[in-house]
Specification:
mainly beta; 0% helix
Length: 213
């Protein structure tokens, strides 16, 4: 069994409640570091998984058109798994103020349901406009695989040799393990014209791929 943890969840239908001075990324027209920090609280829900998260974005340096953000995050999956992320995000507004271009560098750590810990480093780029968002991320694990369970299965194989039955005992060993995978994801979103001006609403699609050993 292998485990992976991209920061973008693709094809997930869920709900999110945001508190504090939080606005959609495409509506951020002021890149000044004097902008107050924002805090997001929310959740993603499906028939199999319920996840809750907290996300803080705090400007630490910048200018009128560029800002460097400290972005710590945490998520909790049904009391079985926990994840902590710490990242730096830089965003730059174009001269015509029509788009925001950004890049990020993160360290992600996850404690799994099997009591194993995995870390990974990730880097990404983004382009944000009033109606369209685009993001791409790459992930590289820094831990070796961890054994979850080992089991043995013994069978007796009988063959006929020289007119007599010969039995051989064959034992097979099975090892179950989990690991973080190297991979990447891309995501694109459309903020619904008209509706998103009053209630931030968007449709996102994406694709991710993780490389097996």
């Amino acid at each position: 069994m292998k485990t992976s943890f991209p920061r973008s969840w693709v094809w997930v239908l869920g709900g999110c409640l945001c508190l504090g001075s939080v606005v959609p990324a495409q509506a951020e027209t002021n890149a000044s570091p004097d902008r107050p920090a924002s805090l997001s609280l929310g959740g993603r829900f499906s028939g199999d998984v319920q996840e809750f998260f907290v996300d803080l974005r705090a400007p630490i340096a910048g200018s009128a058109r560029r800002v460097l953000l400290l972005n710590p995050r945490a998520s909790f999956l049904e009391d079985r798994e926990q994840e902590l992320n710490l990242g730096l995000v830089v965003r730059h507004m174009t001269a015509n103020e029509k788009a925001i271009l950004g890049a990020n560098l993160f360290y992600d750590g996850r404690w799994t349901a099997s009591d194993n810990y995995f870390g990974q480093v990730g880097a990404g780029v983004e382009a944000l406009t009033r109606h369209l968002d685009f993001r791409a991320n790459y992930y590289y694990p820094v831990n070796d695989p961890e054994v979850v369970a080992t089991s043995r299965d013994t069978v007796i194989e009988e063959t006929l040799e020289s007119g007599r039955t010969v039995g051989r005992e064959i034992t097979s060993t099975y090892t179950e393990f989990e690991e973080a995978l190297e991979g990447a994801d891309i995501e694109a979103g459309l903020w619904i014209p008209g509706l998103s001006d009053h209630l931030p609403t968007a449709v996102f699609v994406g694709y991710y791929y993780f490389m097996p050993d």
